[in-house]
Write a structure and sequence with these properties.
Layout lengths: L8 E4 L2 E8 L3 E9 L3 E4 L6 H11 L10 E3 L5 H4 L2 H6 L3 E5 L9 H14 L6 H11 L8 E3 L4 E3 L5 E6 L8 E5 L4 E5 L18 H13 L4 E4 L4 E2 L2 E2 L7 H27 L5 H16 L4 E3 L2 E2 L5 H10 L1
Parallel strand pairs: 4-5, 5-6, 6-7, 11-12
Antiparallel strand pairs: 1-2, 2-3, 3-4, 8-9, 9-10, 10-11, 13-14, 15-16
Helix pairs in contact: 4-5, 6-7, 7-8, 7-9
Length: 318
């Protein structure tokens, strides 16, 4: 798809979605929200603001310098990698305090990835993963406003966003609730079956994920604005599900979490002294058909699960 084809799509009078691709076949959605002030939810990877956001803004008569706030939903490289470009243009960076260190330390991203790979016996993949992360992470610029659950971001003109802390994907993941529009901007907080066909959701904190799902569902949103087109059993559930599709996103997220949790608990009970990679393979064998897994290019494990699998393993081992 040509660069010019990545354009804003209207979700609401005040909300527009911008799909932006990145290395490795990924695509992350940014959301432009306009009141008297202008906010962008998430910034993509290094280069996303300059390559994709700036031309899209021009179509609305805006420039990067017109973006007052970057509202990060969490601290992963495909959501805050472009923060520096927007910060340099004058934006203030907002991020929940539990993910704030990720905005100040690119090294933390690589260390966490290396730790997860080691838990699965995949240490040899760490250099490639580190290089990938560092290519997509922009300069560290920290956070201007540390967010807490219940905070409000007031853009004026009756556009107020409530911060809803929904940990699980990361410890500091949040949603932004635009109550008057019935829109919950979820980022990656509610993952269904993940964003890659035949893959897994990315869940770093399984012990918190159930509560995060339940909190997001309790809001009662009519529309979700998701960071990716998360999958259900029959294909995409988004990136902007409405009506009955909203409930399906929550059902699939809960069912997938419960399937993985149960699989790892059984695998650890059956082979408590086995290596992490062996336990992960044993667990996935029991849910492969249920979750229709086929994304396997990390030594027989789903590449999309290199953060998820060590996390469920850690919880199951206690």
């Amino acid at each position: 798809m040509a660069r010019s084809e990545y354009a804003f799509e209207r979700v609401h009078d005040r909300v527009h979605r911008l799909p932006t691709p990145f290395e490795g076949g990924g695509l992350v959605n940014l959301y432009l929200i306009r009141g008297e002030k202008t906010a962008v939810v998430d910034s993509g990877v290094l280069g996303t603001p300059t390559t994709y956001l700036a031309p899209a803004l021009e179509s609305l008569g805006l420039q990067l310098g017109d973006v007052d706030f970057v509202l990060n939903t969490h601290g992963h490289m495909d959501h805050l990698g472009g923060n520096a470009e927007l910060k340099d243009a004058g934006s203030e960076i907002h991020l929940h305090r539990d993910d704030a260190e990720r905005a100040s330390s690119n090294r933390l991203h690589t260390e966490m990835a290396a730790e997860g790979l080691k838990a699965l016996g995949l240490e040899h993949l760490a250099p490639e993963r580190e290089a990938f992360l560092l290519r997509l992470l922009g300069r560290e610029v920290g956070v201007d406003r540390l967010l807490e659950d219940g905070d409000t971001v007031d853009l004026g003109a009756d556009v107020r966003l409530q911060v809803v802390h929904t940990p699980g994907h990361t410890r500091g993941s949040v949603c932004y609730w635009f109550e008057s529009a019935g829109i919950l901007i979820t980022g990656d907080s509610v993952q269904a079956r993940g964003s890659r066909p035949g893959g897994l959701p990315v869940i770093e904190e399984p012990q918190l994920y159930l509560g995060g799902i339940q909190r997001a569902e309790s809001i009662g949103a009519r529309t979700l604005c998701m960071g990716h087109a998360f999958k259900g059993p029959d294909g995409d559930l988004g990136p902007v599900p409405t009506g009955p599709a909203v409930a399906q996103v929550f059902r699939e997220s809960l069912a997938t979490h419960q399937a993985l949790q149960g699989a790892f608990e059984r695998a650890v009970a059956e082979a408590p002294n086995a290596g992490g990679g062996d336990i992960a393979r044993r667990a996935l064998d029991t849910v492969r058909d249920t979750l229709r897994l086929r994304d396997e290019d990390a030594d027989g494990l789903p590449a999309s699960g290199i953060m998820t699998l060590p996390s469920y393993l850690r919880v199951a081992r206690g």
